[in-house]
Design goal:
381 residues; alpha/beta; eight-stranded mixed beta sheet; two-stranded antiparallel ribbon; 8 helices; 34% helix
Length: 381
């Protein structure tokens, strides 16, 4: 595939400001090395014409690290400017506190759905009175009688956990964990991914296998251009909430149900921070910048760990490093699709960063196989 295709931006705006390319035009790949092996521009001269070849390689590594530090600092500065301005422009949207619910179980599930729909309807009324008709419309759709909301909080950027399928009777449950720039205002595209997976599971599942999909927008996702998108801070805040969700799912579906986490982009950092001891059977990382761990074993999970990346995903060009800047770790470590990480790498097709759940795609077919436990049917690059 040509380099031009590699640098195409993601259609939903979830891309690097410069299309994922380093400022000097060198494509970053394979754990942060330049495609030409990290050689300086004049490395074509003989090794004895100045410095030994080893010193040239060392110089290349220092230049690479310097570029990454400059890029990280630029992201920090941009985020420091963009985020306060964004907050100043858009006032808070009034919404009620989340509904008070009984402990979740199969017996209380319908009651929880009804209470959360009522809360979403009230949030819609308050947003409309505040003249935010976009948010009011989203909340109103979530309040429809056909929606199954396990959790709902209309305050701020919003939180919602929605179920597709019969969760109480499901044999196989998939939990989708989203990446950056996902909130109630962009929830439609996240739900579209969950709906596509739900349909795929229904078409692929063996006769008698019951499936459910849980779209979990249960944390404050970072902005694509922000200080938070390059660190694990938001993921660490999200981890207790994801663990609580899995405990709720076990209380509802029982211990026999097989649960898979499908983690997209920054969502894979959330899954990495949540994985230790988590009662799930599979963790699939797609479009992942890293997990914050150097290896799959370092996640300390009994689950099978999978990784896939589309051929046109700009994440390939993100340096897979972690650096200490001003006491904060920036970056997420080893590339999950690299042999060094040790995940089961599956074929994800030639799509971009937003295409993993595209109907008819290779990635969606393989993700459904992972959820269904059809391990031998999963294809590999």
């Amino acid at each position: 595939m040509g380099s031009a295709a590699k640098y195409r931006r993601a259609a939903d705006g979830g891309h690097l400001a410069d299309g994922g390319r380093p400022a000097d035009g060198g494509r970053l790949a394979d754990g942060g090395r330049l495609a030409d092996g990290g050689r300086p521009a004049d490395a074509g001269r003989p090794a004895d014409a100045g410095r030994p070849a080893g010193r040239w390689r060392q110089a290349g590594r220092w230049r690479q690290a310097g570029r990454w530090r400059r890029a990280a600092l630029a992201a920090l500065v941009a985020g420091a400017v963009v985020l306060p301005l964004s907050a100043a422009v858009r006032p808070d949207i009034p919404a009620p506190a989340p509904a008070s619910l009984a402990p979740l179980s199969a017996a209380t599930l319908d009651e929880a759905y009804a209470a959360n729909r009522a809360n979403a309807a009230e949030a819609s009324r308050l947003a409309a009175a505040h003249h935010d008709h976009g948010r009011a419309g989203t909340d109103r759709q979530l309040a429809a009688s056909t929606r199954k909301l396990l959790h709902f909080d209309g305050r701020g950027s919003g939180r919602v956990t929605e179920v597709l399928g019969d969760l109480a009777r499901a044999d196989r449950v998939a939990v989708l964990v989203p990446g950056s720039d996902t909130g109630l205002d962009t929830y439609g595209r996240f739900r579209a991914a969950a709906s596509a997976l739900h349909r795929q599971l229904a078409s692929q599942a063996p006769a008698g296998t019951r499936t459910a999909v849980v779209a979990w927008l249960g944390y404050e996702t970072p902005g694509t251009v922000s200080t938070t998108v390059t660190t694990t801070g938001r993921a660490e805040q999200a981890a207790p909430h994801l663990r609580a969700l899995i405990a709720d799912l076990r209380a509802i579906s029982g211990e026999e149900a097989r649960v898979a986490l499908l983690c997209h982009s920054y969502g894979s950092v959330v899954c990495g921070r949540s994985a230790a001891g988590l009662d799930v059977d599979d963790i699939a990382l797609v479009g992942s910048p890293g997990t914050g761990a150097d290896t799959a074993a370092a996640l300390h999970t009994r689950a099978r760990v999978w990784a896939g990346r589309g051929g046109d995903d700009w994440v390939e060009n993100v340096p897979h490093l972690d650096l200490d800047l001003f006491g904060t770790t920036v970056g997420f470590g080893t590339d999950p699709v690299s042999p060094a990480f040790g995940a089961r790498v599956f074929t994800a097709g030639d799509g971009g960063h937003s295409d993993y759940f595209r109907p008819g795609s290779t990635s969606l077919t393989n993700l459904a196989r992972i959820v269904l436990g059809e391990i031998k049917a999963v294809t590999h690059d």
